[in-house]
Amino acid sequence: MPTKQHQTVHAAMLGRLLWMCTILQISILAYGLLNFQLKETLDATRSQLGLSFSIARACALALHINTAIILLPVCRNLITKFRATALIRALPLDDNLKLHKIVGWTILILSWIHSVAHFVNFARIAVATGTGARGWIIICFTNGPSLTGWMLLGIITAMAATASEQSRSTNFERFWYTHHMFVVFFVIWAVHGSFCMITPDAPPFCRGTASLWKWLLFGGLLYMGERLLREFRGYRRAPITKVIQHPSRVCEIQISKVLNNVKAGQYIFLCCPRASLLQYHPFTLTSAPEEDFLSVHIRNAGDFTAKLHQVCGCDTENAMGPSNLPAIMIDGPFGSASEDVFKHEVVMLVGAGIGVTPFASILKSIWYRSGTVPLRKAIFYWICRDFGSFEWFRSLLAAIEEQDTDKMIEFNCFLTAAVKDDDAQNLVLNSTSDKDAITGLSSRVRFGRPDWAHEFDSLARRYPGRDIGVFFCGPGALANLLESHCNAPRYDKTRFVFGKENF
Hints:
Blueprint (H helix, E strand, L loop, with lengths): L10 H28 L4 H7 L1 H20 L5 H8 L3 H4 L5 H34 L2 H10 L2 H18 L3 H6 L1 H8 L2 H13 L17 H23 L2 E10 L3 E7 L10 E5 L9 E4 L8 E7 L3 H9 L15 E8 L11 E7 L4 H12 L8 E8 L9 H10 L5 E7 L5 H10 L15 E2 L4 H11 L4 E7 L2 H11 L8 E6 L3
């Protein structure tokens, strides 16, 4: 059982992360401002440019330090290794992408502040030299530091604009290729820093001006090793053995088991050269580690997944023969919050729509490992908008329920869409006394959204004083709601530990 300090993606840990980032940025900027305001070798520069010079240089210092951090959260192999150590108790490893985004937005904001401060510096230089607006334009656009600065500002702004959730879901390829301009960004940054536009008053003058490499060395080398390992492993070809078309534009792809170190709840990166030569996309494994194949369920929800459905024959009525199925390349497996399911005695598993995929693997693994792990009870919630979505894992859930003679798994399915009169009549006609007409399970589908306050209170009464793991995959709004219920104060000493899938 996890200790009281083990809080995976818990709000307190995330709050500490945000405070740490905020305090770090404020401290760096404060130090930079004091340093450049008081440094004796910059007296002449300060007298001409004023506070805007110190602001620009302080932002530059903060940018260098953020550069040292930005690549570390996306070293997935490193994070997966750390998950097996005591660091999981102290660091929000499952919030790695949130940290990456925080640092990324910080770099964007600091870049703009740095640029605006220099615009003011250039204006003061133009006034001092008597060249006016024409001089300001010349300084802004006709020298090395300015030109490389504009390039950097354009690249970082484009990366941020295409990285929003809406932009990624609309056109993932645009996000993928734009985000990989970070290599060009760092090269230009190194050149940008090598210019000595503002010369100090005393020697060694411009020595050591280009210092980006010092800050990028540690994180850059780690990330380079990570990418080399991923590229090496990513060329591991895995033949597709079976493709199954499910309702609601969901395709199940079964792959030869080329990975032997898989755990329930983990995910892989998948590349299909016929769909896209370079792109690797994360997909949760829906197969259990005990099975002799790997499987993923992929919904047609974007440009890459649409092309993948097409090349695998999921968008046609005629199934493709094994010889016509494309080869794919996979990298992984990578750890996720769901790995911690078996560390608890009681867990809530909440999946919304296609977000049920990690729990397919976990439910099957619970079935296989019954009696050999601390887990004694799993309460499974599946929330869908339409009837067809329940068809994805209907047969799997029915088989698990039939074999689960100890009643270790409790099923709770919710249909949130409004039921038409014809559908309601069909449900009545097709229902039996012991099986639900929609899922085929003994437990009935409930209509509407779950009353989460009631569900949490009910579990707290059933398992007082326990640490109950809450694992979720689905929309961010529901994740926030569940996390707020997990963090609500309780007087029965029951503690809910929240974990969410992050790609």
